[in-house]
Structure formats: C-alpha cells, structure tokens
Amino acid sequence: MSADFLKKNILPSQKIKGVNIKSSARFLNRELSWLAFNWRVLELAQDPTWPLLERVRMVSISSSNLDEFYTVRVAGLRELARNGITKLYADGLTPAQQLKLIDVNAKALSHAQQIAWNKLIIELAEKEISILQQDQLTNKDKAFLDKVFLERIFPIVSPLAVDPAHPFPFIHSGGLAIALHLEMKNSKKVLQALLPIPNNTDRFIRLPCKNGTGLRIVPIEIILIQALSVLFPSYNLVGHCMFRVLRDSDLEIEDEAEDLVREFETALKRRVRGDVVRLKITKDAPENLQNMIFGALHVHKGEVIEVDGILGLEDLSEICVMGPEALCWPSNEPRVPERVKDFDQDVFAAIRQKDMLLHHPYESFDIVINFLWQAARDPYVVAIKQTLYRTSNQSPIVEALCAAAEAGKSVTAIVELKARFDEATNIKLSRQMERAGVHVVYGFIDMKTHAKVSTIVRKEKEKLITYTHFGTGNYHPVTANVYSDLSFFTCDSSLGKDATKLFNYVSGYAEAEGLNDLSIAPSFLFNDLLGYIEAETQAALGGKPAQIWAKMNSIMEQNIIDALYRASQAGVKIDLVVRGICGVRPGVTGLSENIRIKSVVGRFLEHSRIVCFANGTKMPHKNALVFISSADWMGRNLHGRVESMVKIRNKTVQAQILSQIMAANLADTRNSWVLHADGTYHRNLDTGNTALFNCHRFFMENPSLSGRGKVGAEDVHNLAHLND
Fold this sequence. Notes:
Structural class: alpha/beta
C-alpha cells in the first residue's frame, strides 16, 4: 500500500477470519501496538540516509522508551496478574496473556537494539569515532584513565561489600552497578561486592587522540574495573558482571489527601523504592553473582534479560553530544512569523490583525514565551491565566508568570502535579510561583488537567480584550525544538469566554455551560466527536461526500473506534495519521475497508492533534470543519482528563491546517509506515522513479499561511482555496 494517502485509491481490503464488528479481534492490543512504535524508532537507527549520530540517538531513544514502558505499563499489568485479575481487555486478552506476548516481543527488541548498536560501532569507527574496550587500551591510555579515575570518579564512587554485616544495598530504578567476585590475595578469602555507577557522572570518557583528530571513547565501567586495585587493594578479581534495575514507577495517591503537594512528595519517594519489574544483566555472568543479585532483588528468571553487549543503551545520547556536528542533522532555525516582524515583535498587535497559527518547531516557540513576557511588562494587562502540564526545569514561562504577579497583575496557574516523571519539577515550580504571588491551583485530585490554554486580559479603550493561546503541546521550550505542535493565537471574544469558562471549571468546579467553539473533556468532547463522526456517516448514507482526516499520537477509545468502523461501512473515507498506539484495524473487508492508517516517525516527533470533517465537501475545502486539540483518542483523555478541542473558524488558519499540515502528513512517503489489517506496519522506500516526499523537510522550507505578513501574503488567497 502506498504511503501517499492524498492519492484517492483505496486498495482492496483483506478478509481476516474472526474479525468483525462484534468480535474483540476488531481491536489491536495496546501494549503490542506501543512496542510496534518502538520498533519503528529502532528502524530509523538502521536507515543509511540518516546522519550517523542521529542513528545512534535513535538506539538511545528506543532503549529509554522500552525501559519506561516496563516501569509503567508492564508494572501495572504484572500487578493485575499477581492479584489474579482475569478481566479481558478490549482485544480479548487477559493481563497474564499480554505479559507473555510482551515478554517475547520485548526480548526480541532488546536483542535488536544490541545488533543495531554493534553495526553502528563499525560505522562510527569508519568516521574515526572509536568505542574502546579494555584490550584496546594502550599503556598511555591506561595511565590517562588512572588519572581520570582519581580526579573525577574516586571521590564519588562507593565500593560496597556484601556479607552478613553489609546487606545488599538499595539500587534505584535505572541504576547501573557492577557485581564483583573477589578473592583476598593472601588468605584466598572470598568477598562479594558491588560498585554502583554514580548517576551524576558521565557514562563515557573521552581519551586523547593523536593529532587531535577523531574521537576515542571508553565506558566508565572499564575505568572502574581497571581501578579495582585502588578500590579493593587486598583483593584479586575472580569474576564480575553488570546489571541494571528497573522498578515500578507508577504513583498511587490517596483520593482524600488534604495537602496534595505533600502527598505527591511522599509518593515520589515511594516510586524510587518500587518493586523490581525488570533486571538486565550481562550475558554469562558468574552463577554465584547471579544468585546474589536475584535473591537480593527478589526477581525470577522471567524478569531477567541477559544482554550480550552494553547495558544502559540510553546513555549513548552522550556520544551524540561529543561527536562532530557534521554527523548530526543540520541545525533547524525556527522562523519568526513575518506578521510578528511587521509589528516589531508586538505579539498582541499581530493577533489583533488576524488569528495566527504557529507550527513548531518550524516556527519559533519564543513567540509563545514573548506572548507571556509582553503581558508581564504591559501596564494595560490586568490578568493572566495559564495551564502548566509540563515545562522546563528553569522555565521562562514560569519566570514570566512570576514577573507578572510581582508587577501586581492577577495571575493564576493551573499546575498538574500528576504529569508523569515531571511531578518533582512541577512541585518546585509551584513553590516558586506561590512565593511570587501567583495563585497556584492543582486542579482535580481524580483527573489530570491536560488542556494547553493561556489567556491574557488587556484593557483597550475602556474594554477588556482577552487574548487566548490554545496549544496541542506543552509549554516546554526545550521539547518545542523537536516536537511538532501547533500554537493558535486569537483575540476572538467568543473563544476568550470559552477559555475563561475552562479555567473557572478547573479552579472553582464551575460547570462550563454554554460553550461556543470549544469542547472540553470529560464533559462534552467525547460526545462531540461521536456527533461529528455520525454526521459524516449520515452524509455518506445520503450519497454526499464524506471524509475524515485526523492526526494524533494514540487512539484506543473503543466507542470512537466502533464509530469509525460504522462510518467506514457507510462509505466514509477515513485517513488517520497515528504516531504511536493504535487499536484500529484498517482495511478489513466488511469492517474497515475505507480506513487507512499511517504512522509518521522522523526527525521531529509528531505530537499535534488535529481532526477534520468534510462537512458535505471534498477535502481540502473551505467549508470543512477543522479542530485542534490537546487530547488523543484514548479513554483516559476523553473520560478522565481535562482536555480541550477548539474549532478553527479563521479561513487562513483552517487552510493552513488542511492544505499544508494535514495534506503534507498524508502525502509523506519518507517518514511513513502504513498499518495493515494484520496489525503489522510496513515502510516502503522503494517508489521506483518517484521521489520520496518528506513532510518535515517541506515544513522546514515553506512558511505557514497564517503567519505571513506583507512578505509572502500574495499567495495566501490561492493556498487558502478561497476560490472554491
């Protein structure tokens, strides 16, 4: 199947026994779908057209992803299986059945990661980047590393004996350690010991190179083994191995916690000491050391992965930083919208002229930051409200909010304490804002506030004007450089009122009634989506054009999927761009023959959520209904989180989303994997004489419609299909 979904051909569907609208087999398994995504990430590590160090980075990301998968998803499934829960999931599998399938798939993935890395070692060597082992070190190298050890490692490393007087120490989640079997030089007395690798030091150490060219690197564990004579001067090394611990990282919070911040601080401490869910250990580790480790950590063979290679592949990201820039992607310089330049960086003036949509990282996230800083300094701004799900540790967003509060403005920040793995950062930033006078609200105890909204109220000619920002991603200036997301700016009074009602709902439990162009989960968003899908279904049944285009990270909500199946059966043409988890089975005869699904995985992480309904037209068309959202189509998002979905009425912005962003994603053939009816993904880079279309390159080279000012404004009319 072609990955170019702008081509209107729907290939013949496939009959799959037992798959129909009533069978559980109509849903693909969530966990296996996620693993399939990580296989796609690893596949990029083997793509010879990618810069070499970027391929190394993909191995690192794939490994990090898999570890997080175990600490969160597998940990939860294991707990269900241990408690004898046999409830079938949507796809008909019990927790125990899923764990068996995951184990086979994940072990194969771990093995493939090592193979990919071993191939990359050879290619790195060809570019004069050498990853050295003990037997490749010269005497001069060893002397240099001895000095490195004494100056940089010895003060922070802690050799730990393991015996009745010294119990096996606690190893934190993600922690690497060397297990040692030692023998006293004189008495032959045996000692077992551990060398935990400090988590505040570099994993890889740079060695001097002849003539200053090239890069020679050695892992820290080799330095530690070489330095045993210093750490254990009375002993000889008999045997050793490395191991890495992954622990249950899920958080449990008491529903009635009086002090939510303090409760989260306590829960974060519990996370560090969670049960071991996975243990990685070097292959052919001495049996006595295996027994010591397995017994102390209470793991059995099924929870152990033997690694024939390097442990902690996620640390390979360090090498990407050390290496030459020529082996990485050329720098992406985000554009400043021409309209903002026309108004001398006055973001308010640019928004007053017309609604504006920015496409990050191709357009600068600094505009979002400047939007808030301008508000903080503007004497006519009276109030700011802001949601914060994730942001950076040293956040310019938070600094702007603090400055605004200190300037006497009314500032409210809704901070989500339950943002996984960012809880500690969010607690710290909350304390900082409270000290500055910001009204910090923690939202609901039983559900996350995931909506990405900011409002600024400004006094203009005796009127209060609300400037609103709706985003599909987080207010995070670091991830905004690599995540593909949308920022929508407007001073439309109706949307301003809608956004204010959302804030009042979260901060004061005031039901958001009478919304105009904003849908909010969990109150309305789910039913609104079903209503729009049903409208397309009825249009198809009535012989009218009917299409759905949607882009998201994940889709698993059963009712939404079944609605898509019914729409497909009615004749609605459905094209989905789903980066990660996907429970929809496309191209099945009698079920989903009109559904096509692809995953776009490339240089930038596709993160924006978009949904478009033809509304009786053939897309792209000026009368199509276009929405951007913070929500994926998951049960958690639609039923258990505060989310937002905003309708786009401005025709230029609507055209930008349809004719540029969605069209380019649908047409992409370079970064696309097509999902088949059997649940497998296929990437076809062999298109004959046809050049592969790369949507990321397209976005880097072509400015967006709505951000154009005087420069480039002449082609907006045509691109916005205003002549339709």
